[in-house]
Design goal:
Layout: H1 2-12, E1 15-17, E2 27-31, E3 37-41, H2 67-77, E4 83-87, E5 106-109, E6 112-116, H3 126-144, E7 148-153, E8 156-161, H4 170-183, E9 194-196, E10 198-201, E11 204-207, E12 212-214, H5 217-231, E13 235-237, H6 238-251, H7 263-270, E14 279-281, H8 284-299, E15 303-305, E16 313-320, E17 324-332, E18 351-355, H9 360-366, H10 370-385, E19 393-398, H11 401-409, H12 417-429, E20 433-438, H13 445-451, H14 455-461
Parallel strand pairs: 16-19, 19-20
Antiparallel strand pairs: 1-6, 2-3, 4-8, 4-9, 5-6, 7-8, 10-11, 11-12, 12-15, 13-14, 16-17, 17-18
Helix pairs in contact: 5-6, 5-8, 6-7, 8-12, 10-12
Organism: Penicillium argentinense
Protein name: Reverse transcriptase domain-containing protein
Domain Reverse transcriptase: 11-206
Length: 468
């Protein structure tokens, strides 16, 4: 297989026989997503002495487009906009390497020494150098196609129709795209062409009719199993950690609340000693985040609503006291609404007054610090009502600075983190976008009265309530 690929590259001028002493590195094969194989040049060998180790990290740093850019552009382009995806064939292999540097990219095969004449897969700076070329193509296309949003992720080019819509956007786009790539002699990989209102971008299915982003079911299942398997292990290798982190980072393109649950994995991965055989014990922080991922993904249906305007807005008010917890919620048209303006519309079925002497859970909470009971009050709201909040924007009003900080950061130290973690699992699983809001205690009178089981005050505030 390698011999066949080398013969093809030799014919295309992408490699040549070496004619002076060269720096030789080994070859390898890695599987491609389409079932084929890609030849790579292991320029990180030997360990700590390979060519890549002599290249500063700053020479290979790239700021890629994100899937959030696509979500925003689809939202701005409007319902039913057309998404077009095109792919450049052979990517790195069409960018030449300066002749003076080719001797650094040598390999041996069948008793002959060859050098790379084009960027090889395995060179640390190859993505950065190719991206300079892709940026130029991006700029040309954007200038020639101003009615489209143009994006690229290395060799993938994604175009989205702007408003006003073009009657047949694919034809005009391809006319320009094909002419430019032909002129620049850029090979096109037409097997990966996609267009329409439902297109896979960066592995995520983006649907401009439903205004949804969907995680492929197989990837969702695989990531759930990976997180569970890691939790059953006492230690992980670097390769296992890289695979796990990559899998969960991919899921975070749709599970947005999971993005704050990746940092511990990145830190854990960066601390590995040199050597692929090394293993590290799983830290408490990593285990905590893996539990969050496992539980969230096992409940998640894989769907993110990408248009904020299509999300219903719900307001949840909570409070806790020494005797109980109180909460209520209502729907509105604005995230800035206040419960007082909706007082006459509040319904007792959307409220709860939980005494801390009713059950074992309440007995445990009753002896907890007020910070924990405040966060737990929000969790109780999720346990009771979050099935009604699928794909909602949920404004959570609390007079607890601890709860507000935890909702803002996604993490708290100590006991309050336990209920916070549980409610964020439910929020992620039901695609609930949380907007935390702190308010003074005097503006939280109804939730306060509910937390104290002060039904006389509740009746004064909401006289239309007969009972809870």
């Amino acid at each position: 297989m390698i011999s066949a690929k080398l013969a093809e590259d030799l014919n295309l001028g992408r490699i040549r026989l070496a004619y002076r002493p060269s720096f030789v590195s080994p070859l390898g094969l890695v599987p491609k997503h389409d079932g084929g194989w890609r030849r790579i040049h292991d320029l990180s060998w030997p360990p700590r002495q390979g060519l890549n180790q002599g290249i500063p990290d700053t020479w290979s740093a790239i700021e890629y487009m994100t899937i959030d850019d696509i979500y925003e552009q689809v939202t701005q382009a409007g319902l039913g906009c057309t998404i077009i995806k095109r792919d450049i064939k052979d990517a790195f292999r069409i960018v030449p390497v300066a002749e003076d540097n080719q001797h650094l990219l040598a390999f041996q095969w069948n008793h002959s020494t060859y050098v790379e004449c084009c960027l090889p897969f395995g060179l640390a700076t190859a993505p950065f150098l190719f991206n300079l070329f892709a940026e130029a193509l991006h700029w040309i296309l954007q200038c020639l196609l101003p009615v489209f949003y143009i994006n690229h992720y290395l060799d993938d080019f994604i175009a989205i129709t702007r408003s006003p819509p073009v009657s047949d956007p694919t034809g005009p786009f391809d006319e320009v795209y094909n002419e430019v790539t032909d002129y620049l002699r850029i090979p096109r990989n037409t097997n990966k062409d996609q267009q329409g209102t439902c297109v896979t971008v960066l592995g995520i299915q983006v649907d401009s009719i439903a205004m949804e982003a969907r995680l492929p079911p197989d990837k969702l299942c695989r990531a759930t199993l990976d997180a569970a398997a890691a939790l059953n292990a006492a230690s992980l290798s670097l390769k296992q950690t890289e695979h796990l982190t990559g899998s969960l980072a991919f899921c975070s393109r749709v599970v947005r609340l999971g993005r704050t649950r990746l940092q511990s994995l990145y830190t854990f991965q960066a601390a590995f000693p040199h050597g692929r055989s090394a293993r590290r014990r799983i830290s408490h922080e990593v285990r905590d985040d893996l539990e969050w991922w496992r539980d969230s993904l096992s409940l998640f249906n894989g769907v993110l609503l990408i248009d904020p305007c299509r999300r219903s807005i719900t307001h949840l008010y909570t409070d806790a006291s020494n005797t109980g917890q109180g909460l209520f919620f209502f729907s509105s048209k604005s995230i800035s609404d206040c419960w007082l303006a909706h007082c006459h519309q509040l319904h007792p079925s959307n409220a709860a007054s939980l005494a801390l002497v009713q059950d074992a859970h309440a007995h445990q909470v009753a002896h907890a610090h007020i910070n924990t009971t405040e966060v737990d009050a929000i969790l109780q709201g999720f346990l009771l009502f979050s099935q009604h909040w699928l794909h909602h924007t949920l404004v959570i009003h609390t007079d607890s600075s601890t709860a507000h900080r935890g909702l803002s950061k996604g993490f708290l130290h100590g006991p309050p983190n336990v209920p916070l973690k549980s409610l964020l699992i439910l929020a992620a699983a039901r695609d609930i976008q949380i907007v935390p809001h702190w308010l003074p205690s005097q503006e939280n009178k109804l939730a306060d009265s509910l937390s104290r089981n002060n039904f006389q005050e509740v009746a004064n505030i909401c006289p239309h309530w007969q009972d809870l």
